[in-house]
Amino acid sequence: MDGSWIVNDSRIRDVVIVGGGTAGWMAAAALSATMGDQLRIRLIESDEIGIVGVGEATIPAIRLFNGLVRIDEDEFLRATQGSFKLGIEFQNWGRIGESYMHVFGQIGQSLDLIEFWQYWLRGRKEGLAGPLGDYSLNEQAARAGKFGRVPPHPNGQLDGISYAFHFDASLYARFLRGHSERNGVVRTEGKIIGINRHSDNGFIRAVTLESGEEIAGELFIDCSGFRGLLIEQELETGYVDWSHWLPSDRAIAVPTANVGPIRPYTQSIAHPAGWQWRIPLQHRTGNGHVFCSQFMSADEATQILLDTVEGEPLADPRTIQFRTGMRKQAWNRNVVALGLSSGFLEPLESTSIHLVQNGIARLISHFPDRGFAQANIDTYNRRIAYDYERIRDFIILHYTANQRDEPFWRHVREMELPQSLRDKIDLFKATGRIFREQEELFTEVGWFQVLTGQNVVPETYHPLADALTSDELAGFLNDLKTIIAAPVPRLPTHADFVSQVSAAKPVHAR
Questions:
Q1: In what order do the strands lie in the sheet with 325-327?
Q2: For the segment 494-509, what is each residue's pLDDT rounded down to a tens digit?
Q3: Strand-strand pairing, 274-280 and 325-327
Q4: I need a surface site. Which of 148, 195, 307, 363 has the fewest CB within 10 A?
């Protein structure tokens, strides 16, 4: 063959990532791990530009990302001062004084084509069922302060422990930087002072640094934070504002010294005009108070936070302003926005880092050539918008399903909801059923935990749950409770497990 059949090579070679932090270095690590032999990747960041860095809790999907980048889990935990996360405890969200958990993993066991919780709903109605957490290994371990990497039960129908992590996001970025640079990513320190575009199509051609250096690229990834240097300041993409549904617009953040054993779960504590997070790390606890400035002053919010932290503050509180929503296009021309430059959803369900991970996975799936097919870009944008909208609905659910009596909580309970969320709530109230649509992040059991945890009671349950007699149902529920609780006493405490991981010497291949 003379090779005349080969078309002109239109593959993208030069990728420029604008901004570091968690989003930038996650993008660099993933692209260099999967496409590093095909791409020249340059990351530009400035030490003078601060990083928001409040997201330190994750969901189990982060383990898939770390696996993709070929990260050893124990090494990652040591490098990031990390701990394990089995779920989130929500305090005062339904009524003041109440508490429930949204944990990862399986709850109960499905039977006869219907979900476990249909039997649980019937059992609760007949006084046969214990609290939902009795049927969750994750919750039993979390409440006991225990942790272990527990495999699935030998019967093949019960999962083991499902977990994610708490970690220091700045240390995670530093850790990923090391991986990325070993894979050939080039980091450039500097501030961007100019952006140059192609005259024919408006695509970004290059960026100019304060030093005078011009860095050209074919694909640009905007990880510049809220300001959206490329996606918004230059391309004027526009923003979809969701503050009418999620009106919180401020967060006060402060780290504190640890007090007592570190918990294997995140805490979310509702206050008169927002909520507080507690995220336990090895070396400190991350704390923050998300609130709505229409209903509370920054001074009052700061005082509430300082009055309710468990340890001594290690720094002065800092205020972060935000506006909930997303870019009208996460991908515009040859710019893809990731992280805060693509949108913001408050970290109530620890989705901030996941949305970065999701955007990267979608980008790899839709990776373009130099033709930048608009159909490919449009599909990416539809998928990203769907992901944001469904996570938005799940977060709104926590607010609207409350029975508190303060002005803020009355406002979010009575507001008009997105139709997609209204449909889900109405179906559950009428039938006890939840359906997961397409690839939405949160599963049916996640929705069920929040709905029932915040006192949304369905009128009925699936008729197949009546196939068991009352004695059979009681036996089924009691057996499950016993089997699920059995491993917990044998587990080490979470603090001991983390100490063992931290003390272990890393093993490096020769």
A1: 239-241, 325-327, 343-344
A2: 999 999 998 876 554 3
A3: unpaired
A4: 307
DSSP conformational letter for 185:
P
**φ, ψ at 196 (rounded to 5°):** -115, 135
Helix (H, G, I), strand (E, B) or coil at 164: strand
First to last CA, the chain: 44
Nearest alpha-carbon partner for 465 in 193, 164, 120: 120
How far, in Å, CA of 271 to CA of 289, rounded?
A: 9
Q: Which residue type occupies 164?
A: A
Of the listed 85, 146, 328, 429, which one is catalytic?
A: 85
pLDDT band at 55 (very low <50, low <70, confident <90, very high): low
- Coil, strand, or helix at residue 92? coil
Question: For tokens 């339904």, what's the residue?
Answer: 94
401 close to 391: Cβ distance less than 8 angstroms: no
Residue bearing tokens 């901030």: 352
Q: Is 85 marked active-site? A: yes
Query: Edge-to-edge, what's the strand order for the sheet holding 87-91?
Result: 99-103, 87-91, 266-271, 274-280, 285-291, 250-256, 318-321
In order, the DSSP letters of 294-351 are TTS-HHHHHHHHHHH-SS-BSS--EEEE---EEES-SEETTEEE-GGGTEE--GGGS-
Per-residue model confidence as pLDDT tens digits over 370-389:
999 999 999 999 999 999 99
- For residue 206, the SS3 value is strand
Residue 245 bridge partners (DSSP): none
Residues 461 and 118: beta-carbon distance below 8 Å: yes
Write down the residue that tokens 């476990």 correspond to.
116
Q: What is the pTM of this model?
A: 0.95
